[in-house]
Design a protein that fits this description.
It comes from Paenibacillus wynnii. This is XRE family transcriptional regulator. GO terms for molecular function: DNA binding. The protein is mostly helical. The chain contains five helices and no strands. The protein has a single domain, classed as 434 Repressor (Amino-terminal Domain), CATH 1.10.260. The termini are far apart.
Length: 79
């Protein structure tokens, strides 16, 4: 699982169903990719980043490296 991606999804209310609509894939397929059952391809990750997390660092968002997890992944919006 992509820990930082999961955290950002929860924080922003982004669902796997919303991602599946944008990627034009079944919800189960997207879920399997995000949970590591199937490979998430670069073009799919890039589309997710551009649509849902444009302010996030791609490397940290999709990191499976423990050294990159938990650091600030995205710009916090100014309110």
């Amino acid at each position: 699982m992509y820990t930082n991606l999961s955290s950002e999804m929860e924080r922003r209310g982004v669902t796997i169903s919303a991602m599946s609509r944008e990627l034009k894939m079944r919800r189960g397929t997207v879920s399997d990719k995000l949970h590591g059952k199937f490979r998430l391809h670069y073009d799919e990750a890039l589309k997710i980043k551009r649509i849902f997390f444009s302010d996030c660092d791609m490397e940290r968002l999709f990191s499976t490296n423990l050294e990159l997890e938990g650091d600030e992944t995205c710009e916090l919006p100014n309110h």
